Amino acid sequence: NLGKDDQTTVRLRIEPRVERIGVYALPDPMLASIRTAMPVTLPPGLRSTTYEWTRTARQIGLPEGTEARFYGVTPHMHERGRKYRLTVNAAGEPPECAIDVPRWDFHWQRTYFYETPWVIDADSSFSVECDYDTSKDTAPIKPGWGTRNEMCLASLYFTLPLSALGSL
């Protein structure tokens, strides 16, 4: 309210040492393709067209022999997004849905955290399926950071043992 002081409080605790550090991995092979001779494009004029990718934890930067805990994800597409799904295949476990967004809304993006993290090793994998509506487009849609382009990004939040810091 106008004329009132902000009453927000923050509790912050500084620890001299921690056992685990938090890190983000930001895999998006669609976006990465802009550095290639043949970038990924989405075909125009379709009510539904998909782009899918799978990467191991090793491919997204988890050092060999390191056990990570996967705590959360921020799914990201732009305005043509329709649906988003992330599946985790933790080593030794069957694939499991980590997030399913059946009706994408560009203006409603946030990080989703899990009560119980997945235990991840370098051989664990992440699969993403992004579904887009290109029915209003007349030219192929290129990957890029602007909302006129598209992305299929998974911002993955992990914790790693402090000892892994030297391997990153």
Characterise this structure:
This protein has 168 residues and is mainly β. It has one helix spanning 29-32, and strands spanning 20-25, 49-56, 68-76, 81-89, 96-101, 112-120, 125-132, 153-161. It is built from 1 helix and 8 strands; from the N terminus they run βαβββββββ. A 4-stranded antiparallel sheet has the order 1-8-3-6. A 4-stranded antiparallel sheet has the order 2-7-4-5, with no helix packed on it. It is globular and about 55 Å long. The termini are far apart.
Which strand order do you get reading across the main beta sheet? 1-8-3-6
Percent strand: 35-45%
SSE order in H/E notation? EHEEEEEEE
The average pLDDT score comes to 93
Approximate helicity band: under 10%
Overall form: globular
Number of helices: 1
Give the helix/strand class.
mainly beta
C-alpha Rg (nearest Å):
19 Å
Summary tags:
single chain, globular, 168 residues, 2% helix, 4-stranded antiparallel β-sheet, 1 helix, 38% strand, mainly beta
Task: Summarize this entry quickly.
The protein has one helix at 29-32, and strands spanning 20-25, 49-56, 68-76, 81-89, 96-101, 112-120, 125-132, 153-161.
Present the secondary structure layout.
Layout lengths: L19 E6 L3 H4 L16 E8 L11 E9 L4 E9 L6 E6 L10 E9 L4 E8 L20 E9 L7
